[in-house]
Design a protein that fits this description.
Layout (H helix, E strand, L loop, with lengths): L1 H24 L1 H6 L6 H24 L6 H21 L7 H20 L1
């Protein structure tokens, strides 16, 4: 069962890398005012959500690890905000800089919460 946790964790990191990497590729477009929500951002956000829920489920059911439910709840709320922002703006030709910076900032916040708490 440990292999399941490892696979989920690796896929979670891949989702983070996809979301943040595609966001970083949009930096010039953000400052020029013609940034877009690219498919890689959506795929990364959904991957993070599904694998994160899978990791928590695994830890809850298969281990005796004490889970910080407050941390998980905050991380889930931040990730849902990212997914909602991306879903609302994915069909737009141009996305405002505020939305793009919010997505990048919330992604960074999620990483900080994972490491620091």
């Amino acid at each position: 069962m440990e292999i399941l946790r490892t696979i989920l964790l690796i896929l979670h990191f891949v989702g983070i890398a996809a979301l943040l990497g595609v966001w970083f590729s949009q930096i010039k477009s953000i400052s020029a005012g013609n940034a877009r929500i690219l498919p890689g951002m959506m795929h990364g956000a959904w991957t993070m959500l599904v694998t994160g829920l899978g990791l928590v489920t695994y830890l809850e059911l298969a281990t005796d690890v004490e889970i910080n439910h407050m941390k998980i709840g905050i991380k889930l709320a931040v990730l849902i905000a990212i997914v909602v922002l991306a879903l609302i703006n994915r069909k737009k030709e141009r996305v405002s800089a505020g939305v793009m910076w919010a997505i990048g900032g919330l992604t960074l916040l999620n990483i900080i919460l994972a490491v620091a708490m």
